[in-house]
Amino acid sequence: MAVQPDVALIPRNVLFGNPVKTSPRISPDGKRLAYLAPVDNVLNVWVGDIGSDNYQPVTSDKDRGVRFYMWAADNTHILYIQDVGGNENWRLYATHIETRETRDLTPFDNVQAQIIEHDKHFPNDLIIGLNKENIQVHDVYHLDLTSGDLTLVAKNPGNIAGWTVDAQLKVRGAVAATPDGGLELLIRDSEQDEWRKLIIWSSDDALTSGPVAFTVDGQSLYLQDSRDANASRLTKLNLASGENTVLAEDPQYDVGHVMLHPDTRDVQAVAFNKDRVEWQVLDPSIQIDFDRIRDIREGDFSIFGRDDADETWIVAITVDNGPGAFYSYNRKNQHVQFLFATQPALEEYALAHMEPISFASRDGLTIHGYLTLPVGFEAKNLPLVLNVHGGPWGRDGWGYRPEAQWFANRGYACLQVNFRGSTGYGKDFLNAGDKEWGRNMHNDLVDAVHWAIDQGIADPKKVAIYGGSYGGYAALAGATFTPDLFCCAVDIVGPSNLITLIKTIPPYWSTFLATFHKRVGNPDTEEDFLKSRSPLFKADQIKIPMLIAQGANDPRVKQAESEQIVEAMKSNGVDYEYMLFPDEGHGFAKPENRIKFYAAAEKFLAQHLGGRYEEVSS
């Protein structure tokens, strides 16, 4: 198919290469800004004075790039985590922004560090989790940033899935996993007191409930709580009386991001991720700020950071047809200053709009999703890529998505579906996905394709299924369970055998194992059931071309998950391509690997859907 000549081909490097700048973080004193930007094509942290052009790189990663970082509350250190080759054994590093000295604060082999809490009132202290004593669970340690000393403050008995720290930086809340996939909220009055059980969330409520934060006086706890409701509500639980007051709710959508005042810890605003993000303001003092931010430009916004004085906010604004943009906002004079766009080269190209859609599933559920159409084309008889999100306990949302723009620019309609089991739409919709891998979850995807065909949007002979992680599983399921619906499939780090997937989950997911058993199946008691939902055991049904990509170090979906179905396709004479990345894990962090994958995927899709592709330069 031909794309109109005035729609330029967007280079893969612009879509999938490193951003020019991203993830700005304001220093606690409000004087400096940090952001991520490449150094020799590797993302590192840059720091400079706000409003100046004196930014310099302070970290010196030369391999995978820094992706997760923050300011230390002392104003002088950048904290970041890094693993090796995608193995997710994160180490915590601190870089002094003046001397550039970098210290490994958790120098332990085969141990995963988690940042649990930091607070501006305790600038030299950090609360972190480490699984160095028991690889299956994380104990809690106090870290002295000055000396690097670690002190154990909470021992994990083996069932704690998460910890909550109060305003005094004391570990006073814990969430224990129960054998049936539920959760128990444990509280203690001080770090010297015994834990007591306060709330039990059943397995039906567990993925839509949990603690948010303590109030400043430590006497109450904010919760996301779906008990006695379909969608999770924001509540305030008095720890002494047990009174649980609803602060914000929506009948259909779960509570999303909760914005707390950094000093008083009062709830200021709550986000609900509907077709687009909608904010509910609870603190009238910030209403004028939200109104001013909404006027900056069309799009969905979030508060990306704030200084200690709460005078300067960093604002992120997302649009669907352009790069993400960041602004600083001064609350005293309501002045807005543009900081940067993540990938300004995108502004040179015609990008597509993402439209929210919904339809009824075959059994009557309302399924929501998003449709992105190629610029300049009538929504009629187009090749379609069904792009399935991972998780599956996550969701697609509105905004700029590189893959959606890539598909549209190459001449395809892109359909993203929040099938049952996706989060954000209340627990009834989430729980409707229990043990429905390869059946009703997949039926929702199939129904979405038929919706697009019935609307006249999709060419029924040119539909591809594409995705990563659970989306990769869905691609394999599409090729095996519904082989006549799709003309090709792309699987990125997707499991092919649910038995081996569950039996080889990372050891530090031990407290999540009961959730897998409830929502996917138990390989010890339901082996035949899990076989019936595993694409590997229906590999003889595959008759469409497939592209499979895998990271060799993936701790979640092991290399064998891809290679066992590749071997089955090879034995059956199926047309396939297999890409193994030896220095990647669950997804592709290094830009050169991403570009290599997308080049292969683009050519593969062009061969089978008829769209265009960018030639690989020699």
UniProtKB/TrEMBL annotation:
One of its GO terms (biological process) is proteolysis. SUPFAM superfamilies: alpha/beta-Hydrolases, DPP6 N-terminal domain-like. Residues 398-611 form the Peptidase S9 prolyl oligopeptidase catalytic domain. GO terms for molecular function: serine-type endopeptidase activity. It holds the Pfam family Peptidase_S9. It comes from the Bacteria. The keyword Hydrolase applies. Keywords: Hydrolase. This is Peptidase S9. It comes from Reticulibacter mediterranei.
